[in-house]
Amino acid sequence: MTVLAVAHRAGNSLSALRTAAELGVDVLEADVHAFRGRLELRHSKSLGPLPWLWDKWELTSTSAPQLQLRELIAALDGRSMLMLDLKGPGGVGVQVAEALHQRLPGQPVLVCSRWWPGVDAFAGRPWARPLLTARNRGELQRLRRRVRESRPPYGVSVHRSLLTAALVTELHERVELVLTWPVNDPAALDEVLSRGVTGVISDEADILRTVLASR
Question: Which range marks the domain in which residue 160 is found?
């Protein structure tokens, strides 16, 4: 069984993208926000009407330049698959689906979100690989019901704190990929591999190297 090495937030900056590409990772993950007519790649969140973006203890002006999805696509070398995490409710899914259709026609892309209607916007796009994300127990229960439907998603992304071997086995019966995050130290890697995941999402180059070297 091949386990995918997924570089967390590697697409949120061009420098991180280059580093991950040099490692030879399987998947480059990026966070996408639809903001004022733009598709911005960042983890920070907007503060509604206030002119600030926040991420933990950091504030950034909304006027500060942000990497755009079109710029990320232009920088891809084609060796790694793109995984886009759609952030927030609203029309981000529809906008990203159209942008990918125009700029990466026919190229497979993984698309995930905790806001599942965003992922559902990719229905009928044969190149899209939809993943449903579960961060907490409530979301996990809904995910388990959803994958039992007649048309389950391509895969799922489940927070590491929720994983058990039995859950992973259950999910694999219905989906192609079971990804998990965060996996940022050797003990966490051993734990999730023992439970049977098929994708490891990590911020750490050493963990990604270990996954790649294990083949």
Answer: 4-213
Q: Using CA atoms, how far apart are residues 184 and 204, in angstroms rounded to an integer?
A: 6
Rounded to 5°, the CA angle 5-133-79 comes to: 30
CATH of the domain at 8: 3.20.20.190
Number of domains in the chain: 1
User: Please, are residues 131 and 160 in contact by the beta-carbon 8 Å criterion?
Assistant: no
Question: What is the per-residue pLDDT for 47?
Answer: 45
pLDDT grade for 43, boundaries at 50, 70 and 90? low
pTM of the model as a whole:
0.90
More confident residue, 26 or 88: 26
Residue predicted with more confidence, 138 or 54: 138
Interior CA angle at 51 toward 119 and 100, to 5°?
25
Q: Has residue 52 got a pLDDT over 50?
A: no
Q: How many helices (H) and strands (E) does the chain have?
A: 8, 12
Nearby residues of 169 by Cβ (< 8 Å), 6 or more positions away:
196
Token representation of residue 92: 């981000």
